[in-house]
Amino acid sequence: MRYWLSEHPDIVGFRWSPTQSWGSTWSFLFTSISAYIAAAVALHLLLLLFGRRRPVTLGPVPAVHSLAMSLLSATIFVGLLFSAAAEIRDTQWFWRRSKTPLQWLLCFPLGTRPSGRVFFWSYAFYLSRFLHALRTFFTISRRRTLSFPQLFHHSILICMSFLWLEFSQSVQVLAILLTTLVYTMVHGYRFWVAIGLPVGRFPFVVNCQIMLLGCNLVCHVGVLLLHFYNGGCNGIGAWSFNSVLNGAIILLFLKFYVEMKSGNGGAVVDSAVEGGRKPSKKKS
User: Fold this and answer.
1) Per-residue pLDDT tens digits for 162-203
2) Residue 15 region by backbone torsions, left for phi larger than 0, else alpha for psi between -120 and 50, else beta
3) CA pair distance 28, 26, nearest whole angstrom
4) How many CA atoms lie within 13 A of 15 on its CB side?
5) CA-CA distance, 179 to 51, in Å (whole number)?
6) Which end of the chain is more exposed for a tag (fewer CB within 10 A), N or C?
7) Dihedral, CA atoms, 212, 218, 221, 225, nearest 10 degrees?
């Protein structure tokens, strides 16, 4: 398995470039995000135009999507973990006098190019953001509402993952490992709920998101410290822009969290995040 996930020639020889990587141009980035937003708005308007009051029946599609995202996230996590270990093994001679492996994970050496094992899985993560964005259309079909924070959130994730590759941005290895680990659990739970199994009595998805945001914040602080006290980190300009985008995500999440708590009196409800069933109430 290690060979197929970290030593295959297509992985080792990967290079992020407009001629070798689909979706690697700025025009594609802006066009795809614009098309995503336009399609979501169009679906919402169509449902309003036809006056459909009941949710659109999607059958097993959301469950299949959640299962696919969980398996894909797990594959990216394991592949990137093996690839990061291999990259550290093969390149440590170059930077070992100035960095530890953990510092390398946080702070790429200046001059790092987007090629090789790690960036192959970063590219896979970038492409998976488009599959993840399909959840927006499930939400619109089920609830007949267009969530602009959700549109903004998915657009930010696509943009951030593009910048990671375009500028060989530091900290992306840890960010992808943390995100795919959390997404494996979150989408696995969503699949669990979608096939009719019991909903948890605690906000599983919300807790996972809090953990992910907290870990990302710690990693960003680590990059900042290493950049100023350890000779600089590659892609710090893109990191600065990504930090602003991450700040926007945190604000959106805090807004949702406060609304959830105030709206439910502190009750535990994952359905707003899941798009799934609400926990059933026991009769007294």
Assistant:
1) 999 999 999 999 999 999 999 999 999 999 988 888 776 667
2) beta
3) 5
4) 5
5) 38
6) C
7) -140
Rounded CA-CA distance 146/43 in Å is: 9
Residue ranges of the chain with per-residue pLDDT less than 50: 265-284
List CB contacts of 215: < 8 A, sequence separation 6 or more.
178
Q: Helices 117-132 and 172-194 meet at what angle, rounded to 10?
A: 40
| 183, 129 Cβ separation under 8 angstroms | no
**DSSP for 13-67, written as a single string:** T-B--TTTSTT-SHHHHHHHHHHHHHHHHHHHHHHHHTT--SPPP-TTHHHHHHH
For residue 52, the model assigns a pLDDT of 64
202 with 266: CB under 8 angstroms?
no
Confirm if 129 and 160 have CB atoms less than 8 A apart: no
What is the DSSP code string of 125-172? HHHHHHHHTTHHHHHHHHH----HHHHHHHHHHHHHHHHHHHTT-TTH
**Residue found under tokens 């943009």:** 159
Give pLDDT, residue 280: 45
Using CB atoms within 10 Å of the CB of residue 162, give its burial: 0 to 12 exposed, 13 to 18 middle, 19+ buried: buried
